[in-house]
Specification:
230 residues, alpha+beta, STM4215-like, six-stranded mixed sheet, four-stranded antiparallel sheet, 5 helices
Length: 230
């Protein structure tokens, strides 16, 4: 008969579990990294690298209110791509399909040969935890330049390279580009050409801090009985 004995997780094992994390910061960083390809555009005869920023909700609202993403001297940073996470959905049909309502699952299992008495009495080390959750995220990537020629080059680069993308643990697609340019004043100091790309990302969320990982040893339980031989 097999029984389980709970054991403490070592520091090395904790570090290994942390390396398996696919938390929300991983999703945000992965989407941001899509744009960090050192793309350059010609802005009024000057070649400039397109900078990339990830904006918190507060920073995004500030940018909208000020009409641009400003540096510490209140000057607009151009050309620039600013990314924000807008929505997070939990598709129930995918979660039921993957895991049902079984609670914790076996995350990892290995045979401990140095602890097993024989092949007939193996001892396994087992890690159990709550499973990853399938999620869908929506991101906005606002592209801002001074000239239409520059923004055209950036959009063309995105569509050609990243219309659909695949990164470890997640997939994504660029859904649409909307024009939100400010062309009411065509002075060189104010005019900003802006498009916003909508990006839908799907993947599995897992964070060892909240998965309640448990470590067990499985052993064969031996029962001894007595009887009298006449």
């Amino acid at each position: 008969m097999e029984e389980t004995i709970q054991k403490n997780i070592t520091k090395e094992e904790q570090q290994l579990l942390q390396s398996l994390n696919f938390d929300l910061e991983y999703f945000d960083q992965s989407v941001t990294d899509l744009f960090k390809n050192k793309l350059q555009v010609n802005e009024g005869g000057e070649v400039k690298e397109v900078k990339v920023r990830f904006a918190t909700p507060e920073r995004w609202v500030t940018m909208l209110n000020e009409g641009a993403y400003l540096d510490k001297n209140k000057n607009p940073i151009l050309p620039l791509i600013v990314i924000r996470r807008r929505d997070l959905d939990l598709p129930p049909e995918n979660e039921v399909f993957m895991y049902g309502n079984k609670g914790k699952i076996t995350l990892y299992k290995q045979l401990l040969q140095d602890k097993s008495v024989s092949e007939k009495d193996p001892i396994f080390e087992i890690f159990k935890a709550y499973p990853p959750r399938f999620i869908q995220l929506t991101y906005d990537a606002r592209i801002m330049t001074r000239y239409y020629s520059s923004i055209n080059k950036i959009i063309e680069s995105i569509i050609m390279k990243n219309k659909k993308f695949y990164i470890k643990n997640l997939t994504g697609v660029f859904d649409a580009f909307s024009d939100e340019s400010n062309t009411d004043d065509f002075s060189e100091n104010i005019r900003i050409i802006s498009n916003t790309a909508t990006i839908t990302v799907s993947g599995f969320l897992w964070n060892e801090k909240f998965a309640e990982v448990e470590k067990y040893y499985t052993v064969n339980k031996i029962t001894l009985t007595e009887r009298t031989i006449p």
